[in-house]
Automatic annotation (TrEMBL):
Record-given protein name: ABC-2 type transport system permease protein
Signal peptide (from-to): none
GO terms for cellular component: plasma membrane
UniProt membrane topology term: Multi-pass membrane protein
Bilayer-spanning residue ranges: 31-50, 194-218, 249-273, 279-304, 311-331, 373-391
Keywords: Cell membrane, Membrane, Transmembrane, Transmembrane helix
InterPro entries registered for this protein in UniProt: ABC-2_transporter_component, ABC2_TM
This protein's record includes keyword Transmembrane helix: yes
The ABC-2 type transporter transmembrane domain, residue ranges: 30-387
Gene3D superfamilies reported for this sequence: abc type-2 transporter like domain (3.40.1710.10)
Subcellular location(s) of the protein: Cell membrane
GO molecular function: ABC-type transporter activity
Length: 409
């Protein structure tokens, strides 16, 4: 019992010494401080401001009106009245519209064919041709969506007028045109805004990037000055890595418990990003997320001989992390190999759980799989981090002893 208490006492002292040492290292390193402040707060504000308009509006579109009738002008007026498309109908032929498109004065071209009104009145089918650059998916979907919508409304108006000319009531004519009524409801992201979609994802991803970069810089500094074993002397003793690792993880968790309310409570509120979860649930969820990232950072920091190496490495790592997070393409559509790779990166379950909490109003039970996934990664990376720290401390100790012996000789 006495030995157990002694072990606990040493672990407790080591925990608080590590907590204090790591905190002093963070405060005294301008690069780490700027990383935490600039990326977690300033960069998030900048990105949120950039996407604050949420949706693209008034995309300029060239209208080539080859018919020049009242009905074609009505069609143009309807297209111009949409929120997303701004019709520019000053082009007399397709070649002139092409020149405007290649000069980026317009983002698409809509051609109203000759005999547009005549063919409609005679009951013939009319083809509206639309050109839009599919390499820019935002503009492409906006133009195509608005043109498709106006085509539907315009066709409905023509059909209903013909039915009313036969003596059919407006209500009956509408029913005849659309025997199946579709009701579309946007869930969670009700405005279909881009900021509401991307900012929660970036918030969770920023946690990983900032932690890995900060830990990498500090680790590189200690590697350069050979101070890992002196800053954390318990690493040289049996079981000494456990309190050291737990202290580091608890410190960074405490830091993000201050940062997260600023992000979701102030930045989100300023730009109208909804938050559909309590702060307590977010805290409970980020604990294994931060722990797993901290242990991953300590593990990979063994690769860094200088502090600058961590920045280069993490810049390269940030793009794969972003791609594998499911932000740009659904994870379910990845090949099995990349699905496996994505599962070993903490940001994958971290982003999924955070987005479901803050945007989909998920209960804790509904994100329990992501939470358990993060704890599994925490356990795995804890083992790797313990081995990595132990080896580094022993190497430094043996290296300094060897130098001391040579100096004595």
């Amino acid at each position: 019992m006495k030995n157990l208490f002694k072990l606990y006492y040493k672990a407790k002292i080591s925990f608080w010494n590590t907590f204090s040492t790591e905190w002093k290292s963070i405060k005294s390193d301008k690069a780490v401080i700027s990383t935490f402040l600039s990326v977690t707060i300033i960069i998030l504000v900048v990105y949120t401001y950039i996407y604050s308009n949420q949706v693209v509006k008034e995309v300029p579109v060239a209208i080539v009106n080859q018919d020049a009738t009242k009905m074609s002008r009505d069609y143009i007026a309807m297209l111009d009245a949409t929120e997303g498309t701004k019709a520019i109908s000053t082009y007399t032929d397709l070649q002139e519209a092409k020149r405007a498109y290649y000069s980026k004065n317009v983002q698409g071209i809509v051609i109203i064919p000759k005999d547009f009104e005549k063919n409609i009145r005679s009951g013939k089918q009319v083809v509206i041709t639309t050109f839009s650059d599919a390499s820019n998916m935002v503009f492409y979907k906006r133009i195509l969506g608005d043109v498709t919508t106006i085509n539907g409304y315009f066709s409905a108006g023509i059909f209903i007028k013909k039915e009313m000319a036969k003596g059919v009531s407006v209500a009956k004519a509408q029913e005849n045109y659309t025997p199946i009524q579709a009701i579309s409801t946007s869930l969670f992201n009700t405005t279909a805004g881009y900021a509401t979609y991307i900012i929660p994802v970036l918030t969770a991803l920023i946690v990983q990037l900032v932690l890995l970069m900060g830990i990498g810089i500090l680790s590189g500094s200690r590697r350069e000055t050979v101070t890992t074993h002196t800053n954390f002397p318990r690493l040289l003793h049996k079981g000494g890595t456990i309190p050291v690792l737990l202290a580091k993880a608890c410190l960074y968790t405490a830091i993000f418990m201050v940062i997260i309310p600023i992000q979701v409570g102030i930045v989100y509120a300023l730009f109208g990003i909804p938050v559909r979860s309590s702060l307590l649930l977010m805290y409970i969820f980020i604990i294994p997320y931060v722990f797993s990232v901290v242990f991953l950072g300590i593990t990979i920091s063994a690769l860094f001989k200088r502090r600058e190496d961590s920045i280069v490495f993490l810049v390269l790592l940030s793009i794969p992390s972003l791609m594998l997070s499911g932000l740009s393409f659904p994870i379910e559509s990845f090949s099995e190999f990349y699905q496996l790779i994505s599962k070993i990166i903490p940001s994958t379950p971290g982003i999924n759980g955070f987005v479901r909490l803050t945007q989909m109003e998920a209960s804790f039970l509904e994100i329990i799989n992501e939470w358990n996934h993060l704890w599994i990664l925490t356990a795995i990376y804890f083992v790797f981090a313990a081995i990595s720290l132990k080896i580094r401390a022993l190497k430094e100790f043996n290296h300094l002893n060897l130098i001391a012996k040579k100096e004595i000789v």
